[in-house]
Amino acid sequence: MNHLANIIQKELKELLTPGAIMSVVVMVVLFSILGGLIGGEVDKAQTLPSIGVVGSGHGDLTIEDGGVDWNLYETLESIYGSSIPSDAEVGDYLIKLDDFDGDFDRLKDMMSQNDLACALIVPDDFALCISEGRPATLTQFYIYEPEGMFGSISSTVVTSIASMLNTSLSKELLMGPTEGNPLFYSNPIAFGGDNDCTMINGEVHNGILPSDIAGEISSQTMIIPIVIMILITMIGSLVISSIGSEKENKTLETLLTLPIKRTTIVTGKIIAAAVVGIIYGVAYMIGMGMYMGSLTGTMGSGVNLEDLGLSLDAFDYLLVMVSLFLSISCALGLCMILGGFAKNYKSAQTMTMPLSILAMIPMFIIMFSGWYGAGPFIQGIVFAIPFSHPMMAMEALMYGDVGLVLSGIAYMMVFAVATIAITVKLYNSDILITGLNQNRTYQKLTGKK
């Protein structure tokens, strides 16, 4: 029994090192932050969006004919009044906007001044059409902003609100005398389809909703974050474990005694790992591309991003590839540093945890809120992690944000050079052979010898 206890104690000392414990603590803290971020995005998605109501003086929103007394704005107030928090004001959600005379740039300016992303446009002949027994058109207008997975939910909510307006007016009309086409009384308001329009990069596109655009963009841009996360985790495990195994088998000591410059050894290891990383990356991108392509074929919105001006040219793809290469270089630099502190193969396994966490954090953030939907604090965290830049490069280039991509490339170049320089210093030191004295740290923490 004592032998078993001693073996268990020995294994626990080797596995529960300060580095391993710290990695778990950091992981718990970071995932708690991510949970709060995702929870905030879910709460944001469940909140009714503020919308602008556009009409000529808003006096034409009232239907008074044949005993019918119905007002569009008052109905909207009733819908919002039953859904918003008790301490909120309906006027904070429903903003009356002046008639824009068909000038969508002017409408965009009015919406921007009131921090609105969507508006309901009521035509001048709205009341006249209803009184004459003809469906009145209600146009949904959106200013598209890339805000991650939940950023486009507002369009589905506003569509539901338009449907509720249609149902309310239908019930009101059916209470009075009905003449003419019975289909009019079931759907007196025409909305959806080509009536909707969305402004993307300053250009208005008819028949498009933000949810359609977000779905198509996600199918195009979600491949790289997933591939990067898998790739960084796999490369980290291979490189760090390889260095730990070399130390355990004493092959690293033999290599370092050869008349070869340490910079040559570091360069050779990084190039070899980069080749393996590129092979894995291409394989995963092909596989994920086929997978996402099959999903797009069955679940896609059918929106052509090229028609919306959201496609990439050859230069954009070159920037994405450069960003991807530099991201792998940064990962290899970190792997070489972490591997240098590993004493053996077993301790090397625990060193992969920080790298995996750094790869997962930007993937989840970009997937749920996106770079543009995150706050300044989260943006700072994402930008500081070098693996995040190729994850958001495609979407940034779609919206013409070349500056963000170029600044990310410059940052990764500095990061990669710095990590490689640190690696060369490690290979010129005793730490590479001896590793961190983890047992001494353990003794200090526990008081045991």
Structure description:
With 449 residues, the chain is of the alpha/beta class. The chain has two domains: 44-208, abc type-2 transporter like domain (abc type-2 transporter like fold, 3-Layer(aba) Sandwich); 217-446, no CATH class. The chain has 19 helices and ten strands. The chain has helices at 2-15, 18-46, 72-81, 104-113, 126-131, 153-174, 182-186, 210-221, 223-248, 251-257, 262-299, 314-340, 345-368, 370-373, 376-384, 388-398, 402-427, 431-434, 438-446; strands at residues 51-54, 62-65, 68-71, 94-97, 118-121, 136-137, 139-143, 189-190, 197-200, 203-206. The strands form three sheets. A six-stranded mixed sheet has the order 4-1-5-7-9-10, sandwiched between helices. Strands 2-3 form a two-stranded antiparallel ribbon. A two-stranded parallel ribbon has the order 6-8. Helix 2 (18-46) runs parallel beside helix 13 (345-368), helix 9 (223-248) runs antiparallel to helix 16 and helix 16 (388-398) runs antiparallel to helix 17. The longest helix has 38 residues, at 262-299. The model is unreliable at 438-447 (pLDDT under 50).
Which H/E pattern describes the elements? HHEEEHEHEHEEHHEEEHHHHHHHHHHHH
Compute the separation of the termini in Å.
21 Å
Q: What oligomeric state do these chains adopt?
A: single chain
Q: Count the helices. How many? A: 19
Integer count of domains: 2
Uncertain runs with pLDDT below 50, 5 residues or more?
Answer: 438-447
